[in-house]
Amino acid sequence: MPARPYFDGMDTRAPLVDPFARPISYLRVSVTDRCDFRCTYCMAEHMQFLPKKDLLTLEELDRLCSAFVDLGVRKLRITGGEPLVRRNIMEFFRAMSRHLDAGLDELTLTTNGSQLARFAGELADCGVRRVNVSLDTLDADRFAQITRWGRLPQVLEGIAAAKRAGMRVKINTVALKCFNEDELFPLLDWCAGEGHDLTFIEVMPMGEMGEEQRLDQYWALSDLRRRLESRLTLTPLTERTGGPARYVRIEETGQKIGFITPLTHNFCESCNRVRLTCTGELFMCLGQEDRADLRAPLRASAEDEPVRQAIREAISRKPKGHDFDYSRQHVAGQVTRFMSHTGG
């Protein structure tokens, strides 16, 4: 039996703990559902984005994120869509930087890299020390195919700019069957040469993309790992960064490689994170539809106490785990919202 939910009307400044005794210390915040790419596993080509009036203002995002920091969140990751396409986004990063060394340990972001050359210096000035960049191929034609609208040289320049600004870069690569399988070792070698960490991710069943397409794209990381082990020595690491990745060290190069495997390995037992959308919905689990409306209490009062109470009540409903599954040639556990809505 799970522990009794932590929320029972007690002091709403007490640290967040879910019904399974997991402290919630990591918040992922989507600041926009918009993106300048249309990656085939993430979005439809012709997306219907949210009306701007439905989005939280930067000031409202500041209030919500600050409430989470007050409640013990130590890591804040800014996501989208593509977070750097949000107008005046650096105002938000500058506002969040005030929490560093005052409750917040890390301020970071996940990006497609298209705007990094423009913003890398300012991000570093705001205390961003690490950045995750989504990059599924080093082939320009394939890159244009998978992103529909993206240009590889622009992203590579952004990654180089982040490195020059002193930020550590981690490359996130979605494993896609019959698309980037032959780039496994070239990607590994490129990251080693550039000094970037690399994490592989299984494609997730999110958004109405079509069951056949999901099955065609799905490349199990258990197979990817076996291919790595056919040439290299992988040593499991106990290191965890607050995210779902499990890491290994490649003994021949010293590289650290991560695997995010929501389908071949359920990573929920140590989940310490929740996701806030750009409309103020709090998703307690990426793979479940249950959510809490934080926009209503935020806009109903200038006081933060109702917001903290709503956050705590939501955490009391955090489930034990998700139920993504590709077994029996069926996409089970698929959620209808696109990843860009919840935040990458």
General description of the model:
The protein has 344 residues and is α/β, with parallel strands linked by helices. It contains 11 helices and 12 strands. It has a 12-stranded mixed sheet with strand order 7-8-9-6-5-4-3-2-1-10-11-12. Helix 1 runs parallel beside helix 2 (89-96) and helix 3 packs parallel to helix 5 (152-164). The chain is globular, with a radius of gyration of 20 Å. The model is unreliable at 1-10 and 324-335 (pLDDT under 50).
Please sum up the structure shown.
By secondary structure, this protein is of the alpha/beta class. Helices cover 29% and strands 17% of the residues. The chain contains eleven helices and twelve strands.
Tally of separate helices: 11
Which geometry do the CA atoms define?
globular
Strand order within the widest beta sheet = 7-8-9-6-5-4-3-2-1-10-11-12
Share in β-strands: 15-25%
Class by helix and strand content?
alpha/beta
Q: What order do the SSEs take from the amino end to the carboxyl end, as H and E? A: EHEHEHEHHEHEHHEEEEEEHHH
The biggest beta sheet is recorded as: 12 strands, mixed
State the distance separating the first and last CA atoms. 32 Å
Mean pLDDT: 87
Please tally the β strands and state the result: 12
Give Rg in angstroms.
Answer: 20 Å
Model regions low in confidence, pLDDT < 50 over at least 5 residues: 1-10, 324-335
Helix content: 25-40%
